[in-house]
């Protein structure tokens, strides 16, 4: 019988993180799932089976240490999914009005916390020839008005991923634009979230990426979904 694989997914209580957790649970993965709301996270864990909820803030070093312990207790990581994120200031401001304290906090969630988890789990991931999936955005590469602060954080996450892929050729490092999704985050950004497709569509595309293990690089969920 094949050994059960283990994944850590941050931001898994709703939206894309929850949808991806469901996809991997159906494939028999052991899951360590994170979110700040313990009740919402426990509810998701109850649906999944083979899931360990560890609630907390990914910017907290103590919480990250608890996540790493939980992953190692389940046999070690085969996959790290850095999905937890924040828009930062809402309503989204023009750069001329961007509060710098909010921007610094957004970098903490969207860039520094993912890097810290990568650093903590790299020895295990190298040993298991695992994979890292960082969730990005088209705002990282497009000049959308009022999306500058958030876009900067995602651009930084993309370059982090790009360099990590060059430095760790034994791993798969993917950074993915999931596209617009019907999520609370898109709604908080002031967009018409109800007109967007559900996150389950992007999650199915990400499952294909994880299953097929293509080379490290930047991908779009729309392209993965259309590939045959």
Key terms for this structure?
Rossmann fold; seven-stranded parallel β-sheet; alpha/beta; about 230 residues
Main sheet strand line-up = 3-2-1-4-5-6-7
Mean pLDDT, nearest integer?
A: 94
Number of domains: 1
CATH fold-level label:
Rossmann fold
- Report how far apart the termini are: 29 Å
- Compute the number of helices: 8
Query: What is the β-strand count?
Result: 7
Could you give a short account of the major beta sheet? Answer: 7 strands, parallel
What is the CATH C-level name? Alpha Beta
Helical content, roughly? 40-55%
- Give unreliable regions as ranges: none
The assigned structural class equals alpha/beta
CATH superfamily: NAD(P)-binding Rossmann-like Domain
Looking at how many chains there are and whether they match, the oligomeric state comes to: single chain
CATH A-level architecture: 3-Layer(aba) Sandwich
List SSEs in N-to-C order. Answer: EHEHEHEHEHEHHEH
Residues in β-strands, percent: 5-15%
Description:
With about 230 residues, this protein is of the alpha/beta class. The chain has one domain (about 5-225): NAD(P)-binding Rossmann-like Domain (Rossmann fold, 3-Layer(aba) Sandwich). Helix content is about 50%, strand content about 15%. The protein contains 8 helices and 7 strands; from the N terminus they run βαβαβαβαβαβααβα. The chain has helices at about 15-25, 40-50, 60-75, 100-130, 150-165, 185-190, 200-210, 220-225, and strands at about 5-10, 30-35, 50-55, 80, 130-135, 170-175, 215-220. A 7-stranded parallel β-sheet has the order 3-2-1-4-5-6-7, with helices on both faces. Helix 4 (about 100-130) links the parallel strand 4 (about 80) and strand 5 (about 130-135). The model has no long low-confidence stretch (mean pLDDT about 95).
């Amino acid at each position: 019988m094949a050994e059960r694989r283990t994944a850590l997914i941050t931001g898994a209580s709703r939206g894309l993180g929850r949808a991806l957790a469901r996809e991997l649970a159906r494939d028999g993965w052991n899951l360590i799932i994170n979110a700040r709301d313990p009740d919402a996270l426990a509810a998701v864990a109850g649906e999944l089976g083979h899931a360990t909820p560890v609630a907390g803030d990914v910017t907290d070093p103590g919480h990250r240490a608890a996540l790493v312990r939980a992953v190692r207790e389940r046999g070690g990581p085969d996959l790290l999914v850095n999905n937890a994120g924040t828009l930062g200031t809402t309503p989204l401001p023009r750069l001329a009005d961007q509060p710098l304290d909010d921007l610094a906090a957004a970098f903490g969630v969207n860039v520094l916390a993912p890097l810290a988890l990568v650093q903590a789990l790299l020895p295990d991931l190298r040993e298991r020839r695992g994979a890292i999936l960082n969730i990005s955005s088209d705002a990282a590469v497009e000049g959308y008005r009022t999306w500058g602060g958030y876009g900067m954080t995602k651009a930084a996450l993309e370059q982090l991923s790009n360099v990590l892929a060059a430095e760790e050729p034994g791993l798969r490092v993917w950074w993915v634009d999931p596209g617009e999704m019907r999520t609370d985050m898109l709604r908080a950004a002031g967009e018409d979230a109800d007109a967007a497709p559900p996150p389950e569509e992007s999650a199915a595309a990400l499952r294909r990426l994880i299953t097929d293990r293509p080379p490290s690089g930047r991908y779009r969920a729309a392209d993965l979904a259309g590939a045959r």
